[in-house]
Amino acid sequence: MGRGDKRTFRGKLWRGSHGKTRPKKKALRKVVPAKPTAEA
């Protein structure tokens, strides 16, 4: 277990891969304000 291991965090860093252990950062999403409900 170490640098060459696909399943470990260090192995993922060394290989430059991603997965469950080392997820890619998601692009920041814009926060859309909720539409006000029509009250009459």
Draw up the topology in text.
Elements (H helix, E strand, L loop, with lengths): L8 H7 L25
Can you summarize this structure?
By secondary structure, the chain is mainly α. Helix content is 18%, strand content 0%.
General description of the model:
The protein is mainly α. 18% of the residues lie in helices and 0% in strands. It has one helix and no strands. It has one helix at 9-15.
Annotation keywords:
mainly alpha; 1 helix
Strand segment tally: 0
**From the structure provided, what is the oligomeric state, counting identical versus distinct chains?**
single chain
Structural class call reads mainly alpha
Low-confidence stretches: none
Query: What is the CA-CA span between the terminal residues?
Result: 65 Å
Task: Give the ordered list of helices and strands.
Answer: H
| Form type | rod-shaped
Main pleated-sheet profile: none
Calculate the mean pLDDT score and round it: 79
Q: For the CA atoms, what is the radius of gyration? A: 20 Å
- Provide the helix percentage: 10-25%
Q: Beta-strand percentage?
A: under 5%
Figure out the total of helices: 1
